Protein backbone atom coordinates (compact mmCIF):
# COMPACT_ATOMS: atom_id res chain seq x y z
CA UNK A 1 0.00 0.00 0.00
CA UNK A 2 1.21 3.46 -0.83
CA UNK A 3 0.76 6.20 1.68
CA UNK A 4 0.74 9.70 0.38
CA UNK A 5 0.95 12.15 3.21
CA UNK A 6 -0.44 15.49 2.34
CA UNK A 7 0.80 18.07 4.75
CA UNK A 8 -1.83 20.58 5.46
CA UNK A 9 0.08 22.21 8.24
CA UNK A 10 2.24 23.64 5.48
CA UNK A 11 3.88 26.81 6.54
CA UNK A 12 2.04 29.82 5.34
CA UNK A 13 3.21 33.31 5.87
CA UNK A 14 2.76 34.41 9.42
CA UNK A 15 -0.42 36.37 10.02
CA UNK A 16 -0.04 40.13 9.47
CA UNK A 17 0.50 40.56 13.18
CA UNK A 18 2.37 37.62 14.69
CA UNK A 19 0.45 36.24 17.60
CA UNK A 20 2.08 34.95 20.71
CA UNK A 21 0.48 32.46 22.95
CA UNK A 22 0.03 32.88 26.62
CA UNK A 23 3.44 32.24 28.21
CA UNK A 24 2.27 29.92 30.95
CA UNK A 25 0.64 27.56 28.46
CA UNK A 26 3.68 27.58 26.21
CA UNK A 27 6.09 26.76 29.02
CA UNK A 28 4.05 23.68 29.82
CA UNK A 29 4.38 22.53 26.23
CA UNK A 30 8.11 23.15 26.30
CA UNK A 31 8.50 20.44 28.90
CA UNK A 32 6.85 17.96 26.60
CA UNK A 33 10.05 16.07 25.83
CA UNK A 34 10.28 14.96 29.45
CA UNK A 35 6.64 14.08 29.97
CA UNK A 36 4.07 11.78 28.42
CA UNK A 37 3.05 13.29 25.06
CA UNK A 38 -0.59 12.52 25.84
CA UNK A 39 -1.39 13.05 29.54
CA UNK A 40 1.78 15.11 30.22
CA UNK A 41 2.47 13.24 33.43
CA UNK A 42 6.09 12.59 34.34
CA UNK A 43 5.44 8.86 34.73
CA UNK A 44 7.93 6.43 33.20
CA UNK A 45 7.53 6.45 29.45
CA UNK A 46 7.38 3.73 26.85
CA UNK A 47 7.86 4.05 23.10
CA UNK A 48 4.44 4.00 21.48
CA UNK A 49 4.13 2.83 17.90
CA UNK A 50 2.00 5.61 16.41
CA UNK A 51 1.12 3.34 13.51
CA UNK A 52 0.08 0.36 15.57
CA UNK A 53 2.49 -2.56 15.40
CA UNK A 54 -0.33 -5.03 14.61
CA UNK A 55 -1.28 -2.85 11.64
CA UNK A 56 2.24 -2.50 10.23
CA UNK A 57 3.03 -6.19 10.63
CA UNK A 58 -0.21 -7.12 8.92
CA UNK A 59 0.51 -4.77 6.01
CA UNK A 60 4.17 -5.86 5.76
CA UNK A 61 3.13 -9.51 5.52
CA UNK A 62 1.40 -8.61 2.26
CA UNK A 63 4.54 -7.22 0.72
CA UNK A 64 6.92 -4.31 0.83
CA UNK A 65 5.48 -0.83 0.40
CA UNK A 66 4.99 -0.48 -3.39
CA UNK A 67 6.01 3.15 -3.60
CA UNK A 68 8.93 5.10 -2.27
CA UNK A 69 8.64 8.15 -0.10
CA UNK A 70 7.43 11.45 -1.46
CA UNK A 71 6.41 14.61 0.24
CA UNK A 72 3.87 16.78 -1.54
CA UNK A 73 4.66 14.86 -4.74
CA UNK A 74 8.45 15.32 -4.60
CA UNK A 75 10.48 12.10 -4.15
CA UNK A 76 12.66 11.96 -1.04
CA UNK A 77 16.18 10.83 -1.94
CA UNK A 78 18.95 8.91 -0.20
CA UNK A 79 22.53 10.23 -0.23
CA UNK A 80 23.15 8.40 -3.53
CA UNK A 81 20.13 10.10 -5.09
CA UNK A 82 17.76 7.15 -5.21
CA UNK A 83 14.27 7.41 -3.84
CA UNK A 84 13.92 6.25 -0.26
CA UNK A 85 11.97 3.01 -0.27
CA UNK A 86 11.79 0.68 2.68
CA UNK A 87 11.39 -3.09 2.70
CA UNK A 88 8.84 -2.53 5.39
CA UNK A 89 6.66 0.31 6.51
CA UNK A 90 8.36 3.06 8.42
CA UNK A 91 7.76 3.08 12.15
CA UNK A 92 6.81 6.31 13.91
CA UNK A 93 7.57 6.40 17.62
CA UNK A 94 6.38 8.65 20.44
CA UNK A 95 7.20 8.63 24.15
CA UNK A 96 4.09 8.15 26.24
CA UNK A 97 3.45 6.69 29.70
CA UNK A 98 2.44 3.07 30.32
CA UNK A 99 -1.02 4.05 31.54
CA UNK A 100 -1.79 5.96 28.31
CA UNK A 101 -0.38 3.12 26.25
CA UNK A 102 -2.62 0.59 28.01
CA UNK A 103 -5.65 2.83 27.85
CA UNK A 104 -5.30 3.37 24.09
CA UNK A 105 -4.78 -0.36 23.53
CA UNK A 106 -8.06 -1.07 25.23
CA UNK A 107 -10.23 1.76 23.94
CA UNK A 108 -8.77 2.43 20.46
CA UNK A 109 -6.59 -0.42 19.15
CA UNK A 110 -8.68 -3.42 20.18
CA UNK A 111 -11.97 -2.08 18.74
CA UNK A 112 -10.17 -0.98 15.53
CA UNK A 113 -8.22 -4.21 14.90
CA UNK A 114 -11.02 -6.35 13.41
CA UNK A 115 -12.21 -3.46 11.22
CA UNK A 116 -9.17 -1.45 10.12
CA UNK A 117 -7.04 -4.47 9.17
CA UNK A 118 -9.46 -6.00 6.61
CA UNK A 119 -10.44 -2.58 5.24
CA UNK A 120 -6.82 -1.51 4.73
CA UNK A 121 -5.96 -4.74 2.91
CA UNK A 122 -9.00 -4.36 0.67
CA UNK A 123 -8.59 -0.79 -0.56
CA UNK A 124 -10.99 0.39 2.18
CA UNK A 125 -13.85 -1.55 0.60
CA UNK A 126 -16.19 -3.38 2.91
CA UNK A 127 -19.46 -3.15 4.79
CA UNK A 128 -19.21 -1.79 8.31
CA UNK A 129 -21.62 -0.90 11.08
CA UNK A 130 -21.93 2.57 12.58
CA UNK A 131 -19.85 1.49 15.59
CA UNK A 132 -17.20 0.02 13.27
CA UNK A 133 -16.89 3.29 11.40
CA UNK A 134 -16.60 5.20 14.65
CA UNK A 135 -13.79 2.83 15.71
CA UNK A 136 -12.07 3.46 12.36
CA UNK A 137 -12.41 7.22 12.89
CA UNK A 138 -11.06 7.10 16.42
CA UNK A 139 -8.08 5.05 15.25
CA UNK A 140 -7.29 7.59 12.51
CA UNK A 141 -7.67 10.49 14.94
CA UNK A 142 -5.11 8.85 17.21
CA UNK A 143 -2.69 8.00 14.39
CA UNK A 144 -2.78 11.33 12.58
CA UNK A 145 -2.72 13.59 15.65
CA UNK A 146 0.23 11.63 17.09
CA UNK A 147 2.09 11.42 13.75
CA UNK A 148 1.93 15.22 13.66
CA UNK A 149 3.00 15.57 17.31
CA UNK A 150 6.30 17.49 17.44
CA UNK A 151 7.87 14.78 19.61
CA UNK A 152 7.17 11.87 17.25
CA UNK A 153 10.16 10.38 15.43
CA UNK A 154 10.65 8.18 12.39
CA UNK A 155 12.87 5.12 12.70
CA UNK A 156 14.84 6.07 9.59
CA UNK A 157 17.04 9.02 10.64
CA UNK A 158 17.39 10.31 7.06
CA UNK A 159 13.64 10.35 6.59
CA UNK A 160 13.32 11.97 9.98
CA UNK A 161 15.50 14.82 8.70
CA UNK A 162 13.73 15.14 5.35
CA UNK A 163 10.12 14.72 6.26
CA UNK A 164 8.64 17.66 8.06
CA UNK A 165 5.13 16.77 8.94
CA UNK A 166 5.14 17.95 12.51
CA UNK A 167 2.61 20.44 13.76
CA UNK A 168 4.04 23.74 14.91
CA UNK A 169 2.76 23.04 18.42
CA UNK A 170 1.78 19.93 20.33
CA UNK A 171 -1.91 19.12 19.93
CA UNK A 172 -3.87 18.72 23.16
CA UNK A 173 -4.63 14.99 22.96
CA UNK A 174 -5.37 14.33 26.63
CA UNK A 175 -8.85 13.26 25.53
CA UNK A 176 -7.36 10.11 23.98
CA UNK A 177 -6.89 8.62 27.45
CA UNK A 178 -8.63 10.76 30.08
CA UNK A 179 -11.94 8.92 29.85
CA UNK A 180 -13.98 12.02 29.01
CA UNK A 181 -14.76 10.87 25.48
CA UNK A 182 -14.19 12.49 22.10
CA UNK A 183 -14.41 16.29 22.28
CA UNK A 184 -16.72 18.14 19.88
CA UNK A 185 -13.78 19.98 18.32
CA UNK A 186 -12.05 16.84 16.99
CA UNK A 187 -13.31 15.47 13.67
CA UNK A 188 -12.23 12.79 11.21
CA UNK A 189 -13.38 13.17 7.59
CA UNK A 190 -13.04 10.48 4.94
CA UNK A 191 -14.01 10.22 1.31
CA UNK A 192 -13.51 7.63 -1.41
CA UNK A 193 -10.27 8.61 -3.14
CA UNK A 194 -9.65 7.96 -6.80
CA UNK A 195 -5.90 8.19 -7.41
CA UNK A 196 -6.37 8.54 -11.16
CA UNK A 197 -8.00 11.93 -10.71
CA UNK A 198 -6.64 15.14 -9.25
CA UNK A 199 -8.20 18.48 -8.61
CA UNK A 200 -9.13 20.56 -5.61
CA UNK A 201 -12.68 21.83 -5.54
CA UNK A 202 -12.91 23.04 -1.95
CA UNK A 203 -10.36 24.85 0.16
CA UNK A 204 -10.97 24.83 3.89
CA UNK A 205 -8.79 27.23 5.83
CA UNK A 206 -8.27 26.01 9.37
CA UNK A 207 -6.98 28.83 11.58
CA UNK A 208 -3.67 28.32 13.37
CA UNK A 209 -4.94 29.95 16.57
CA UNK A 210 -8.30 30.65 18.13
CA UNK A 211 -8.88 33.49 20.60
CA UNK A 212 -11.20 31.86 23.08
CA UNK A 213 -13.86 33.86 24.88
CA UNK A 214 -12.16 33.18 28.23
CA UNK A 215 -9.01 34.97 27.09
CA UNK A 216 -6.88 31.89 26.36
CA UNK A 217 -5.52 30.98 22.94
CA UNK A 218 -6.04 27.53 21.47
CA UNK A 219 -4.14 26.02 18.54
CA UNK A 220 -5.72 24.07 15.68
CA UNK A 221 -4.14 21.04 14.03
CA UNK A 222 -4.90 19.32 10.73
CA UNK A 223 -3.27 16.37 9.01
CA UNK A 224 -4.49 14.63 5.86
CA UNK A 225 -3.43 11.36 4.31
CA UNK A 226 -4.47 9.62 1.13
CA UNK A 227 -4.11 5.96 0.29
CA UNK A 228 -5.70 4.21 -2.70
CA UNK A 229 -9.39 4.00 -1.94
CA UNK A 230 -9.54 6.54 0.85
CA UNK A 231 -8.52 10.04 1.85
CA UNK A 232 -8.65 10.86 5.54
CA UNK A 233 -8.21 14.07 7.50
CA UNK A 234 -8.08 14.53 11.26
CA UNK A 235 -8.85 18.04 12.52
CA UNK A 236 -8.56 19.38 16.05
CA UNK A 237 -10.07 22.87 16.08
CA UNK A 238 -11.11 24.14 19.52
CA UNK A 239 -13.69 26.94 19.33
CA UNK A 240 -14.13 26.52 15.58
CA UNK A 241 -16.86 24.69 13.68
CA UNK A 242 -15.95 22.86 10.46
CA UNK A 243 -18.81 22.58 7.98
CA UNK A 244 -17.32 20.17 5.48
CA UNK A 245 -18.96 20.73 2.08
CA UNK A 246 -18.67 17.08 1.02
CA UNK A 247 -20.24 15.79 4.24
CA UNK A 248 -23.19 18.13 3.66
CA UNK A 249 -23.66 16.75 0.14
CA UNK A 250 -23.24 13.12 1.20
CA UNK A 251 -19.95 12.57 -0.65
CA UNK A 252 -17.85 12.29 2.51
CA UNK A 253 -18.34 11.08 6.07
CA UNK A 254 -17.44 12.48 9.46
CA UNK A 255 -16.66 9.40 11.54
CA UNK A 256 -16.38 10.53 15.17
CA UNK A 257 -19.68 12.34 15.76
CA UNK A 258 -21.86 11.48 12.76
CA UNK A 259 -20.66 8.13 11.41
CA UNK A 260 -22.84 6.59 8.69
CA UNK A 261 -25.52 4.21 9.90
CA UNK A 262 -23.65 1.29 8.39
CA UNK A 263 -22.44 1.12 4.82
CA UNK A 264 -19.46 0.78 2.55
CA UNK A 265 -17.12 3.55 1.46
CA UNK A 266 -17.01 2.16 -2.08
CA UNK A 267 -20.62 3.19 -2.53
CA UNK A 268 -19.67 6.87 -2.27
CA UNK A 269 -18.77 8.71 -5.45
CA UNK A 270 -15.02 8.38 -6.22
CA UNK A 271 -13.41 11.82 -5.98
CA UNK A 272 -9.88 13.14 -6.41
CA UNK A 273 -7.82 12.51 -3.30
CA UNK A 274 -7.18 16.25 -3.08
CA UNK A 275 -10.77 17.34 -3.79
CA UNK A 276 -10.74 19.11 -0.42
CA UNK A 277 -7.57 20.90 0.57
CA UNK A 278 -7.07 21.91 4.18
CA UNK A 279 -4.96 25.02 4.45
CA UNK A 280 -3.46 26.58 7.53
CA UNK A 281 -4.59 30.10 8.32
CA UNK A 282 -3.99 32.77 10.95
CA UNK A 283 -5.92 33.64 14.12
CA UNK A 284 -9.69 33.92 14.52
CA UNK A 285 -12.05 34.50 17.45
CA UNK A 286 -13.96 31.63 19.04
CA UNK A 287 -17.13 30.78 17.14
CA UNK A 288 -15.55 31.04 13.68
CA UNK A 289 -17.06 28.71 11.08
CA UNK A 290 -14.90 27.02 8.44
CA UNK A 291 -17.23 26.24 5.56
CA UNK A 292 -15.31 26.79 2.35
CA UNK A 293 -17.03 30.12 1.65
CA UNK A 294 -14.92 33.00 0.41
CA UNK A 295 -15.61 34.99 3.59
CA UNK A 296 -14.53 32.15 5.90
CA UNK A 297 -11.51 31.52 3.70
CA UNK A 298 -10.25 35.09 3.76
CA UNK A 299 -10.98 35.60 7.44
CA UNK A 300 -9.06 32.50 8.48
CA UNK A 301 -6.25 33.00 5.96
CA UNK A 302 -5.27 36.43 7.11
CA UNK A 303 -6.52 36.32 10.68
CA UNK A 304 -8.24 39.08 12.53
CA UNK A 305 -6.70 42.50 12.86
CA UNK A 306 -5.15 43.38 16.19
CA UNK A 307 -8.21 45.37 17.20
CA UNK A 308 -10.28 42.20 17.13
CA UNK A 309 -7.78 40.34 19.26
CA UNK A 310 -7.05 41.29 22.80
CA UNK A 311 -4.21 43.82 22.96
CA UNK A 312 -2.22 41.83 25.47
CA UNK A 313 -1.96 38.79 23.24
CA UNK A 314 -1.18 40.48 19.93
CA UNK A 315 2.40 41.60 20.08
CA UNK A 316 4.63 42.44 17.15
CA UNK A 317 7.69 40.20 17.10
ZN1 LIG B 1 0.29 9.41 29.72
Explain what you see.
This protein is α+β, with helices and mostly antiparallel strands and 317 residues long. The protein has one domain. The chain contains seven helices and 21 strands. The chain has helices at residues 23-30, 53-61, 98-121, 130-147, 157-162, 245-248, 294-302, and strands at residues 4-6, 45-49, 70-71, 74-75, 92-97, 127-128, 153-154, 186-191, 193-194, 202-206, 209-211, 217-219, 221-227, 230-236, 241-242, 253-254, 263-264, 271-272, 276-280, 283-285, 289-290. The protein has a five-stranded antiparallel beta sheet, covered by helices on one side. Bound molecules: zinc ion. The site of zinc ion has 8 residues, from strand 5 and helix 3.
Fold blueprint:
Layout: E1 4-6, H1 23-30, E2 45-49, H2 53-61, E3 70-71, E4 74-75, E5 92-97, H3 98-121, E6 127-128, H4 130-147, E7 153-154, H5 157-162, E8 186-191, E9 193-194, E10 202-206, E11 209-211, E12 217-219, E13 221-227, E14 230-236, E15 241-242, H6 245-248, E16 253-254, E17 263-264, E18 271-272, E19 276-280, E20 283-285, E21 289-290, H7 294-302
Parallel strand pairs: 9-18, 10-19, 11-20, 15-21
Antiparallel strand pairs: 1-13, 2-5, 3-4, 5-7, 6-17, 8-14, 8-16, 11-12, 13-14
The structure holds zinc ion (ZN).
Amino acid sequence: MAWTLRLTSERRQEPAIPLQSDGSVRSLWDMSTAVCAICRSAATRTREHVWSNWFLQRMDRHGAPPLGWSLNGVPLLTRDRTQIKGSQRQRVMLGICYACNQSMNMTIEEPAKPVVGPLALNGWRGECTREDWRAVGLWWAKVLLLVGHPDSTLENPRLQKLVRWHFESAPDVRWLTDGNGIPDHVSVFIHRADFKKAGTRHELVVPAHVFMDDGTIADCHVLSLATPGMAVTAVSSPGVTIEHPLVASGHAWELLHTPPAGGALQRLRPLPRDVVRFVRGGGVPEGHIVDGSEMARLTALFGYEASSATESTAQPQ
